[in-house]
Design a protein that fits this description.
CATH class: Mainly Beta
Shape: elongated
Distance between the termini: 93 Å
Strand content: 25-35%
Largest sheet: 5 strands, antiparallel
CATH architecture: Roll
Strand order of the largest sheet: 4-3-2-1-5
Number of domains: 1
Radius of gyration: 23 Å
Helix content: 40-55%
Length: about 110
């Protein structure tokens, strides 16, 4: 086997890894600071949730629900997604139930 072929064979997996890190970095950069995110890390089977904190060249800060900040490198992230909050929807449902109960209670008397 010639030397250029060996070098190319060794560099291909490295270039794929760098491309993955770049795409994860781009995804995280598009999410605004303070937004709720869920990420899957290479070092754990479970997903981590928290708010996206400060960015750096090598990673970012994940602010956990407890307020604890955790540094995460882009290379450790398998996937990331923004978690949508259902708070407004839940408040509107509660308001509707309360209004319905008020109407029914008003008609009973």
């Amino acid at each position: 086997m010639n030397a250029p072929a060996v070098i190319l064979a060794l560099l291909l997996p490295l270039s794929a890894l760098l491309a993955d890190v770049a795409s994860v970095k781009e995804e995280i950069e598009q999410i605004p600071a303070g937004a709720l995110i869920e990420l899957q890390a290479k070092f754990s089977r479970r997903a981590f949730r928290g708010k996206r904190g400060q960015l750096s060249d090598s990673g970012f800060t994940l602010v956990r629900r407890s307020g604890r900040e955790q540094r995460v490198t882009f290379a450790d992230v398998v996937s990331v997604k923004r978690v949508k909050s259902h708070r407004l929807r839940n408040h509107l449902i509660a308001l509707g139930i309360g209004a319905g109960a008020g109407v029914i209670a008003g008609r009973v008397q």
